[in-house]
Amino acid sequence: MERGLRKQRTRQAISDAATRLFISRGFEEVTIAQVAEAAQVAKMTVTNHFPRKEDLVFDVHESFVASLAAVRDRPLVPVFREAWFGGLERRDALLGFSGPEFARMVVESPTLLARLRELHEERETALATALLAEFDPDTARAAAAQIAGVYRLLFDEVLRRTAASEPAAVVAEAVGRAGARMFDLLEAGLGSL
After folding, report:
1. What is the CA radius of gyration of the chain?
2. Which CATH number is associated with domain 2-51?
């Protein structure tokens, strides 16, 4: 138990040090060696915890990818609508909520934006795979693409507005209106599932 806790603390210390460096210097400018030095660990320790440099930024990537597939109830659209609005109320990081400096770091880095697109695709694939338990492959893929697409569009809007230093309450209100419209459109198309 102690070893697991120590590993988690080390992982968090590395992530925190990396985030501070990336925000102050820019993601592209910071090396893994600099992260290791700032976290007071060996370079190998950093790469053991974070195989990709981008994972230092998106350290919740596993939760992000699994988040949609974890929603397993029917009818689909109301369940995803409820989950999304619950996350909006909490200002959940998995919906894109962060501090302005963090959001700017992401939107200013082509590498991080590319990784974020990959994560959205991985999340869509995970959802499609989960939906195969209930639907044929075409229906599962189509539903996953539409649901994940709405989540992606809203995530991008949260990130963009946050990077522009809009207050979280203003961002939440704006994306809440957009989310209601988008989920209404989903309901019209996928309402029978």
Report:
1. 18
2. 1.10.10.60
- CB 160, CB 93: distance < 8 Å: no
The helix (run of H) or strand (run of E) holding residue 76 is: helix 76-90
Tell me if residue 47 falls in helix, strand or coil.
helix
Q: Which amino acid is at 103?
A: A
Its sign, for the CA torsion 91, 180, 105, 126, is positive
Look up the pTM and report it. 0.91
pLDDT in tens, 14-52: 999 999 999 999 999 999 999 999 999 999 999 999 999
What are the residue ranges spanned by the domains of the chain? 2-51, 61-190
- Tokens encoding 151: 């989540």
**Angle (deg, nearest 10), helices 137-163 and 110-131:** 150
**C-alpha span between 118 and 122 (Å, rounded):** 6
